[in-house]
Amino acid sequence: MTQLLSNENFGDTSKLKGRDFEFLISPADIEIKNEDFDRIMTPDSFPWTKTIKKNWLYYKVGMDEFSYSWEAPGIQMIFNEEIKFEKAKLIADEVSLKLSNYSGQKVQLIIIPKDKLISF
Question: What's the DSSP call for residue 84?
């Protein structure tokens, strides 16, 4: 299930890019074994690679990339500024479904407008 955190209507999402949004995957307490992490937290529909930048893990999908941060309300999923919303949403939806199947928990994907970000 995907929802907006705020009442803001994005309108035509085809114009949105990573600079406009982030995702929050809830709940935050899903435990993922280290040996399962890459398989669960990456998409199946795109080839991907791992890279480290400034001591932070990123996943590259073509020219785009994303990373994770565990916060109190959920798993924050952050994309590069130029990724198109449709591609990022597909990746986030796939990861959410894989997390749900892996954990047996109901997983919710929340779209957060960057101009409405909340400090965790």
Answer: B
